[in-house]
Each structure stands twice: as structure tokens, then as C-alpha cells.
Amino acid sequence: MSRVERKNLNKKNKKRSGRKCICMLFMFFILINGILIVDDSFRMMMMIEEPKVFDHKKINEQVHEICFCGENFYIDEQKIYTTYESIRNEVQDCIEILKEKKKVICKER
Q: For the whole prediction, is pTM greater than 0.70?
């Protein structure tokens, strides 16, 4: 196999992988919508008021209630924000340390 043939084969494989990704996203979208439609139709027919398969309610300005498969999860925005800030600070500290080590290694050469 020549170099040109290998290059063309690699291009075809890249196009296929992009198409596969788009198809997977589309199928996931159809699956979620199908679940929601069937759940809503079943609830209307049976006149059931149980928790939905997927549901979101904003209880107050900081607390969200997410229902997934009949279970309720409460999410506090303030806790998420503080956790995000702490992780962000740790990552920035690590990046600074790596930059300093890189400068030291470059000076040694």
C-alpha cells in the first residue's frame, strides 16, 4: 500500500468517525424524547400523578429538585459554586507549579 493510499484511507476513517458521533448523538436524542413521550402518554391514560421519569423544578433561587426514575435529588447551587471554586484554585496552583518546574528545567539545559 502506497503512502497516498494510506493517506486517503485515513481521511475516509476520519469522516466515518465524525458521522458515527453525529449518529450516536441523534440516536441518544431520539431515545430520550421517546422515553419522555411514552411516560407522558402513560400518565395521561392512567391519570397518575407520581414523579416523572425526568423532571426539574426550581424550589427557590438556589435549590433545584431533579426527579430521575421516581427518585428526587436536591441540588444546591451554592454548594456547587463553592466546590467549583475550590477545584479551580487547586488546578491553577498545579498549573503554576508545573510552569515553574518547566522554567527550572529549561534553565538547566
A: no
Same domain, yes or no, for 44 and 62? no
The verdict on 44 and 63 lying in the same domain is: no
Buried/exposed 55-78: b ≥16 CB within 10 Å, e otherwise: eeeeeeeeeeeebeeeeeeeeeee
pLDDT in tens, 5-55: 887 777 777 777 778 889 999 999 999 999 889 988 888 888 887 777 888
For residue 66, the 8-state DSSP code is E
What is the number of other CB atoms lying within 10 angstroms of the CB of residue 54?
Answer: 13
The tally of domains found in the chain comes to: 2
Burial of 1 (0-12, 13-18, 19+ CB in 10 A): exposed
| Whether residues 17 and 62 fall in one domain | no
Residues 103 and 65 in one domain: yes
Domain that holds residue 59: 51-109
For residue 45 the three cell numbers come to 391514560
